[in-house]
């Protein structure tokens, strides 16, 4: 049997301020730091050892991973970081307060941008400093991997190659894996693993700082899943 643990980063400063965050590299809030530490304590108590860990390229996930494995006294765990685990890119909505955006555009329109499966938000202006093309982390990626806005579907589509190429082979080999990422990139993996419908995944909310464990047999049949 192999175990996969997914962990959404601790609360970020923009979570606290109710802002659209996306690929903007926002730090953890004070509460988020404590959530990350607590998640590590919970993982340590579980007794699970990980052969490989993964994070996105965003500091809120990277710091959550660091704080968690520090609590486990496992800072030596191997870690790989990938843009494929980044949060959904919210385009021109990034940085905007969600309540203020609803007042400006109407609650129904904002709900469509946030909760529909394949609707892309208003695209970021290519001249914006938030354009991934201007970030050293993403300059080696193909242009198609430097989004100016993503739907949930696009986000999910970019997470699946990560699962297929990186995670699935290790689980089949009996290795335990820890993934520290974001609400929407993790939803993409969960949708794939549990065969959820569009409506079901839209209704799924993954809490910050709470480890979610999935048990697989070596044929990758999902046996059970639960929050620790």
Describe the protein in words.
This protein is an alpha/beta fold. The chain is 39% helix and 13% strand. It contains eight helices and six strands; from the N terminus they run E-H-H-E-H-E-H-H-H-E-H-H-E-E. It has a six-stranded mixed β-sheet. Helix 2 crosses helix 3, helix 4 packs across helix 5 and helix 6 packs across helix 7. The protein is globular. The model has no long low-confidence stretch (mean pLDDT 95).
Describe, in short, the structure shown:
With 228 residues, the protein is of the alpha/beta class. Helix content is 39%, strand content 13%.
Please render the helix and strand layout as text.
Elements (H helix, E strand, L loop, with lengths): L1 E7 L4 H4 L13 H17 L5 E4 L3 H13 L7 E3 L16 H8 L1 H9 L36 H21 L4 E5 L1 H12 L3 H5 L9 E5 L5 E6 L1
Parallel strand pairs: 1-4, 2-3, 2-4
Antiparallel strand pairs: 1-5, 5-6
Mean pLDDT score? 95
Distance between the termini: 18 Å
| Poorly predicted tracts of residues | none
Biggest sheet record:
6 strands, mixed
Residues in helix, %: 25-40%
Using the alpha-carbon principal axes, give the shape. globular
What structural class do the secondary elements suggest? alpha/beta
The overall strand count is: 6
User: How big a fraction of the residues is strand?
Assistant: 5-15%
């Amino acid at each position: 049997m192999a175990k996969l643990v997914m962990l959404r980063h601790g609360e970020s400063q923009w979570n606290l301020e109710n802002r659209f965050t996306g690929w903007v590299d926002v730090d953890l809030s004070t509460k988020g730091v404590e959530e990350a530490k607590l998640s590590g304590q919970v993982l340590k108590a579980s007794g699970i050892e990980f052969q490989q860990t993964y994070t996105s390229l965003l500091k809120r996930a990277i710091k959550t991973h660091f704080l968690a494995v520090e609590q486990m006294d496992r800072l030596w765990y191997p870690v790989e970081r990938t843009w494929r685990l980044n949060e959904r890119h919210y385009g021109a909505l990034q940085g905007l307060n969600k309540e203020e955006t609803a007042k400006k555009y109407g609650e129904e329109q904002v709900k469509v941008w946030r909760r529909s499966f394949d609707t892309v938000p208003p695209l970021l202006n290519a001249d914006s400093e938030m354009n991934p093309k201007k970030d050293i982390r993403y300059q080696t990626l193909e242009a198609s991997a430097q989004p100016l806005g993503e739907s949930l579907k696009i986000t999910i589509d970019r997470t699946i190659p990560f699962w297929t190429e990186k995670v699935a082979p290790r689980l089949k080999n009996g290795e335990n894996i820890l993934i520290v990422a974001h609400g929407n990139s993790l939803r993409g993996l969960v949708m794939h693993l549990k065969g959820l419908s569009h409506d079901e995944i839209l209704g799924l909310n993954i809490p910050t700082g709470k480890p979610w464990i999935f048990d697989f047999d070596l044929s990758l049949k999902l046996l059970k899943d639960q929050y620790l």
